[in-house]
Amino acid sequence: MRRFVYTILLCLTVLSAAGLVLSRLSVYVSPERVWFLPFFGLLFTPLLLLNLAFLLLWIIFRKWLLLLLPLAVILINLGFVQMLVNLSAGKKSAPAQSKLTQPQLKLLSYNVNLFGLKSSYSDVSTYAQVAGFINHEKFDVACLQEFYTHSEVQSEQQFARRLPGLPYYYAHYSTIRRNRRFGIATFSRFPIVNKGSVAFSNTVNTAIFTDIVLNAGDTVRVYNVHLQSVRFGDRERDLLQDERFWYDNKKDHSRVLRSALDKLKSAFLIRAQQVDALSQHMRRSPYAVVVCGDFNDTPISYTYHTMRGNLCDGFIEAGRGLMSTFVSIIPSFRIDYILYSSRFSAGACYCPNLTCSDHYPLVCRLTVRSENE
Hints:
Blueprint: H1 2-25, H2 37-42, H3 44-60, H4 68-76, H5 78-81, E1 85-86, E2 104-111, H6 127-137, E3 141-149, H7 156-161, E4 168-177, E5 180-188, E6 192-198, E7 206-213, E8 219-226, H8 234-241, H9 253-283, E9 288-294, H10 302-308, E10 312-313, H11 314-318, E11 321-322, E12 336-340, E13 344-350, E14 362-368
Parallel strand pairs: 2-3, 8-9
Antiparallel strand pairs: 1-11, 2-14, 3-5, 4-5, 6-7, 7-8, 9-12, 10-12, 13-14
């Protein structure tokens, strides 16, 4: 009996280690090549904890050879842990006095969820509340996803008038139906000298770029990105968030589970195409790059890894602890990001507790380094 138990535990140890290896591979291999790998990326945290549990188990049993497997896969994945939890931020030395005069840039990335209109999250308009937040925080650049206008009274021009500190803006709509428009918008305190969109086929999601001239005369290209959503329905959200789902009497559990998996797979594949196109576009940028947006994917994903490339992540450089950008019961659910070229340095990165949307606003303060640094 004891041998049988050890055999089962050994098999589970091997399976959990293999799962964590596949989770790591998911950031490097496109879903278009191996469609199931992103599912292991979603399971990175539980797989890591499971391997930690087996490591402790074999230490307790004093099986020194058996503990090497979970120990090895944990060690090779330690670098990924900081993408989910940052315990080192805030310990940097204070900047030298000469650097305090360098240009500062306060950025906002915020999926406003249609300003509460025509959404499952709320039916109360949050135009005024979101505009008030932006004005109060005095952002230099505000990138809004799921920007929605539905009349001349609540148009992009009317919203811009609510932001006197951000007089320059560019809005691009992927869906236009009569007087209702859905898209993405960037508002800036500094002049916008060039703008454009990166088209995605067969989707309402989109990305735009704006070339912004800062006070120091530097030009920066800001990408505002909204990648493919999963678009779960109410029952699929119940599957993920409501423990009562399995005890109801609707008898559609297997159908809902299949639907959720199919939607996840489809979103993985579409996002892979989108980030490949975007990364190519960013590589051709003549200026330093800042990327703000809702990627709809976790840090352990091909989406994040491809979008980040050689860019820095505000959370990794200046965030603290666990950060959740999505209103969800799932901890460390970071799907919104601010990335930037090495020309910048982050002094702070955080999510204010503003509940106007199913996302939290993501704020990042950047310092513009001089060319010779």
